[in-house]
Design a protein that fits this description.
14 helices; single chain; alpha/beta
Length: about 400
């Protein structure tokens, strides 16, 4: 694990130019784009200082509570029209054991998760497979659905009616009509920006064959979600060929949308992991040092009030170090289902997650798929249809009722 001290002066070890940037982040209204881009100039030796500054900013805005969402992972379909250079989640019809999960399968997973104390049903699926595969169109047609997102809406509604879990759908790009329909049956929703670099969609790039990863359509979905007041999760994926400057530009775009609409509840900083049988299988994984710089930069750009997450299963040996770089959330962690996007990366056990978080002086708290501030501030970003359910599942601070003790007992 990287050794990062939280007691040293966060300005020590920085060049004069970066000292000015960090001082503005700590004391001013936030970094402008020019200052933010200067963070890309940090040397390896300056990263620990940036981390200390980011951790201090986090403490000012979020305190020492670190949250996670106890969840089940429901991969509704792994068919996808896109071909990304690093993805093993997607399957073609010939590779898939089943084209879509059935309603009974969805309920089986959700009910089992409920017995273990989960409160989130994370629906993840491929992007519009019916546009590429006639098998997907036929499966949907036989059941009376025009699109995969129509079926997703009914499965979210089914989980709401038959279980105590709250759906969080992560379905890719969406139109205005699709966001509106899904909003009524989801406590929150999300789409990873990944990167807003146009270069990555050019020939030879990881998004060349992935039309839904074009920056303009990702940003449009985030904007529609903001206009419709959806508590929304997004984030960046690092190590897929983007530059530091492009990471910061993606973070600035996310920040701008949140300033306009107030809906970005969480920003994930996710590290690339090479997987066999993909176009990028020989690419080196993002390093701990690179991820630390990016996490610190994200906090300094997004500000003290942002919720910044690093998935603990993707950095299993050293995941606690990111607490010292400014994060305040571990994301969804499941006692039941694997991470189907990263199946080689198991979730940490609850006892380990709690112990290693508390060892660094933080308090681990379970949350719902909608963040606490969106609950205690009046729930304007929670649909009317779910407000009573959300109230019944949350405590006075907006976290999951019963706290870590109740969840830990259920998961043991």
């Amino acid at each position: 694990m990287e050794r990062l001290s939280g007691t040293e002066d966060p300005l020590s070890g920085l060049s004069d130019a970066l000292k000015t940037v960090v001082e503005r982040a700590l004391d001013g209204p936030g970094l402008d784009a020019e200052d933010a881009l200067r963070l890309a100039l940090a040397t390896e030796g300056e990263t620990p200082s940036l981390c200390r500054a980011a951790a201090l900013l986090r403490d000012r805005g979020r305190g020492r509570d670190v949250s996670f969402s106890p969840k089940v992972f429901i991969p509704l379909t792994r068919l996808c029209r896109d071909f990304c250079g690093y993805c093993t989640f997607r399957q073609s019809p010939s590779e898939a054991d089943e084209l879509y999960m059935t309603p009974d399968q969805v309920l089986d997973v959700a009910r089992a998760g409920g017995r273990l104390g989960c409160t989130e049903a994370l629906f993840t699926l491929g992007e519009r497979p019916e546009q590429r595969y006639p098998e997907a169109r036929e499966w949907l047609d036989r059941r009376g659905y025009g699109t995969t997102l129509d079926y997703l809406r009914d499965m979210c509604d089914l989980v709401l009616r038959e279980t105590g879990l709250l759906p969080h759908a992560n379905p890719g790009t969406m139109s205005r009509r699709e966001v509106a329909g899904l909003r009524e049956v989801n406590a929150s929703m999300g789409v990873m920006v990944e990167s807003l670099s146009e270069r990555l969609s050019m020939p030879g790039g990881p998004h060349e064959m992935a039309p839904s990863k074009r920056p303009s359509v990702r940003v449009k979905t985030l904007e529609i979600a903001g206009q419709q007041r959806v508590a929304f999760t997004t984030g960046i994926l690092i190590g897929i060929g983007e530059t530091r400057e492009e990471r910061i530009e993606s973070l600035l775009a996310i920040r701008e949308l949140h300033r306009k609409y107030g809906h970005v509840q969480e920003v994930i900083v996710q590290n690339f992991r090479a997987k066999p049988r993909t176009a990028m299988e020989h690419r080196l994984d993002a390093t701990t040092r690179d991820l630390l710089w990016t996490v610190a930069a994200a906090r300094l750009v997004l500000g003290p009030g942002a919720n910044v997450q690093v998935p603990p299963n993707l950095s299993f040996e050293d995941y606690p170090v990111y607490l010292m770089a400014g994060i305040n959330d571990w994301g969804g962690v499941s006692p039941l289902t694997i991470d189907y996007v990263n199946p080689e990366a198991p979730w940490p056990q609850m006892g380990d997650l709690r112990r290693r978080t508390e060892e660094l002086g933080f308090r681990l708290r379970p949350r719902l798929p909608v963040y606490p501030e969106y609950i205690v501030a009046g729930m304007d970003y929670v649909p009317d249809s779910l407000r009573d359910r959300v109230r019944s599942l949350s405590d006075g601070d907006g976290y999951a009722k019963g706290g870590i003790e109740r969840y830990a007992a259920s998961a043991s």
